[in-house]
Prior knowledge:
Blueprint: H1 2-31, H2 35-57, H3 66-99, H4 110-145, H5 150-207, H6 224-227, H7 229-261, H8 265-287, H9 296-313, H10 315-331, H11 336-377, H12 380-433, H13 438-460, H14 465-468, H15 472-475, E1 484-491, E2 496-502, E3 508-512, E4 515-520, H16 540-553, E5 560-564, H17 570-575, E6 583-588, H18 591-597, H19 605-609, E7 613-617, H20 620-626, E8 631-636, H21 652-658, E9 662-673, H22 679-692, E10 695-702, E11 705-711, H23 727-732, H24 741-746, E12 748-751, H25 752-762, H26 772-782, H27 788-792, H28 800-805, H29 823-838, H30 842-846, H31 852-870, H32 877-892, H33 901-913, H34 918-932, H35 935-950, H36 959-972, H37 976-985, H38 995-1020
Parallel strand pairs: 5-6, 5-8, 6-7, 8-9
Antiparallel strand pairs: 1-2, 2-3, 3-4, 9-11, 10-11, 10-12
Helix pairs in contact: 1-2, 1-3, 1-4, 1-5, 2-4, 2-12, 3-4, 3-5, 4-5, 4-12, 5-8, 5-11, 7-8, 7-10, 7-11, 7-12, 8-11, 9-11, 9-12, 10-11, 11-12, 12-13, 21-22, 22-25, 22-26, 25-38, 29-31, 31-32, 32-34, 33-34, 34-35, 35-36, 36-37, 37-38
Amino acid sequence: xxxxxxxxxxxxxxxxxxxxxxxxxxLGLFVGHAAYAQIIVLVIFLGGMSLGALAVGGRSARLRxxxxxxxxxxxxxxxxxxxxxxxFVRATDFAYxxxxxxxxxxxxxxxxxxxxxxxxALLILPQSVLLGATFPLMSAGALRHARAEPGRVLGLLYxxxxxxxxxxxxxxxxxxxxxxxxxxxxxxxxxxxFVVALAVVAATRVLYVDxxxxxxxxxxxxxxxxxxxxxxxLLLTVSFGTAVASFVYEIAxxxxxxxxxxxxxxxxxxxxxxxxxxxxxxxWWIRGRADAMDRPLYALGMVQWIMGTLAVATLPLYTxxxxxxxxxxxxxxxxxxxxxGFVVARYGICLLIMLPAxxxxxxxxxxxxxxxxxxxxxxxxxxxxYGVNTLGSIVGVILAGLVLMPVLGLKWLLIAGAGVDIALxxxxxxxxxxxxxxxxxxxxGFLAATVGFLLFNGMLVRFDxxxxxxxxxxxxxxxxxxxYTFPFYKDGRTATVSVRRSRADGYLTLATNGKPDASIGxxxxxxxxDPGALHPLQEDQSTQVLLPLIGLAHAPDARDIAVIxxxxxxxxxxLLGSPEVKQLVTVEIEPQMVxxxxxxxxxxxxxxxxxxxxxxxxxxxxxxxxTGRRFDLIIxxxxxxxxxxxxxxxxxxxxxxxxxxxxxxxxxxxxxxxYEISDSLVASVLxxxxxxxxxxxxxxxxxxxxxxxxxxRAAPLxxxxxxxxxxxxxxxxxxxxxxxxxxLDAMRLGxxxxxxxxxxxxxxxxxxxxxxxxxxxxxxxFLHQQAVGLESLGEGRFDVVAALxxxxxxxxxxxxxxxxxxxxxxxxxxxxxxxxxxxxxxAQRAGVPRDSALAGALYRTERFEALMAxxxxxxxxxxxxxxxxxxxxxxxxxxxxxxxxxxxGRVDRYLARAAAPPDVRAxxxxxxxxxxxxxxxxxxxxxxxxxxxxxxxxxWVPIPALRNGTVVARIRLGDLAGAQRAFRDMATxxxxxxxxxxxxxxxxxxxxxxxxxxxxxAGAH
Length: 1021
């Protein structure tokens, strides 16, 4: 029967951890993910658990059938789980609509905070109390069934509950949330509660065989208990103190391992599971030994002593784990199978660091409870030990997370926790350690050696900053001790923030938990460099400059601006270069990020010196949810969405809230990366924006970063590049290559008209309750995926987006690319240089300096022109067409709706002299028609080219280019049937995941759906 109860308790532990995980997510949506918010969520949860344990523990002896009460509690928890999502949505909607607007102080005000925490407590405190009651009730019932072996029973129950919790953390994070979302995961936990309740009810039919309840009688009190109150106080003190130490360990290890594993949600789930698994294994080990111990109190003292020592002894293992991670990154293939192996290996690292001490932690509570039960405390010992231990956990969370972490740093925080455990061991063993006999002196010497061991590790185990800030979890690279200097390094409340300077090139990089979030080159800060030298915007600098510039161009008269994320501070500083701005609020969750960004002065000087600048330390979701302010421009540039808690700033619920913080003509600017992410995940963010905004445009800000500008207004989003002339902005950009409207317009990718059909038919919306981005981003990071589909829209000769939007782009005039990493900007600049040189005489060309790109383009162009000048047909017309398309692209790349008629005239004359086959003429006409947007010509030529393709001939034009050009040409001609036919004819040649093909397919479907409506409307008129 004990086996059945144990199995039920495994499921109960799994359900309890699922609840803790999901409630934390839910309340994080409401109160934010700031350090104090996360801690108060834990305090509410643990406080409720403690209340439940203490309340029931003191009364269980009076309960005739505690297992039936246990089943009732499980049933009640499950019922609340079934209703929680609806309750949460209704309660928070009511708060936003009816409470927050009427409270003074706005976001961050005491009234709003009090309302948030009161509501949070009401949402999870009742079921937390119920969960806290489960362990004392189950223990009371099981102890009555096996009263002769309390140590075995208690050890088994601690083990089963903990092993279920360890499994629940992994199952919820890696499967349930992805499969069912947060609401479905809660329902799953509720079902587990119901199963447990039914199983325990069934068990009671066997246990309670007598109507008088004789078999269910509580453990009898023993007189000895009244004679040793000091032992009761001592053991409860140890229960409290070891919980403080354990949570100090947990917080320190989670922060430390975040630098090795990455600060992603799945990483935290692995750490939490490993921590609990160690406790479970310790409980299993003591299960078979507790009842046979002659001196259990002595054993408890030694366990506490050893636990603290082992916690510190793992510090050298931790410093080595960075090297292990580097090996793992190189070992596992970037495949789904490799990712699964990588996850298991990371779990192994967590266990190596945590298991020695957590194994000991798992021994302590069963042993303490067993001692008290045996010495007369009876069943009330279970609830008392469990409740006091939970209270200690609360103190540990607050002490470690809010007080000691910023003061001591990670290493000394862990050592402080170890000191608490060792002190508890000495407290228990003090008569033996401080005695004057030889044995006592030996043990005192052992104590002195232990203290020396702690100090030795604290002083000699180096937490090298170059290693801790390496971000080894991304690329498996460790830079070496001499690669960087560190102007700033601090363990903050939510993250470890560092600023490092490369000795090689002088680049300054700001990193959060080892992940770079901003960087600048020396020319931004060194006034001794050549003041006349102009530099291109590369790497992070491109995004840091273009985000504020492009955003401001779409709200040029913005007076009130908000920026999410301090980073280097350059975004806020550049925005303050506008004379129209009256106030700019920068919302940053980590105080040390603000302090670190001072290393980037003077590039960000206005954010600190300008009286219009205000920095708010808060979670962005919480700030915008609670503030009543409206802004003309909001720029959101948080960290990457695989970082735990960040993906909530990319959800449809966030956009639904934040749009109410915009003025009627206000604009939201959302940064998102295209590296280490898939097209489907990027599409999930775009779909969330599509759900909430009637207008949006997407711009490239680097080769792998985009800015999404969104608004709810009738007028289309259009930039006003007058912002480039604002004196403050012009001064900030004086050392960069000239920023021109030509280059900035080339960065535009597309807007709602292009993306909406695809997003509503093929994209899954990223949601708070169905967090596809949070669940998938860490995997795509490991696989080094790239959102190549979206990137491809900014590359290639024919601009599908510009053609569909009827947005022409003329020939280039700017020869130097201000952002060479953006493909279209670089192509336009090369086109301008090539055209400039081709316009020269041969003698003039000889004196022109040539970069490698220009030299290659000139060679291919001049060779092609020389071949045409001969007039003879080529040996292979297919190769000639390839060369023609290559040179045509060099002369036109980046432009749209314009053709070099002089070039095409020479080509036409050559084709006539060389008696080119009709298929070659069709290939040239097709390319010419698309270049000049003569879609009738392109469509006619496409008939010939598609016919050749359908007859299995070698294609004259690459099939994706033929498909895209034909479909767009016929859409522009109003020939929807012809466009659909062309798409179907070439569908077999489309590669899986062809993003442009998916866009066009969705566009055709939407046009077909809307055609009858348009026809009916026309008929009505």
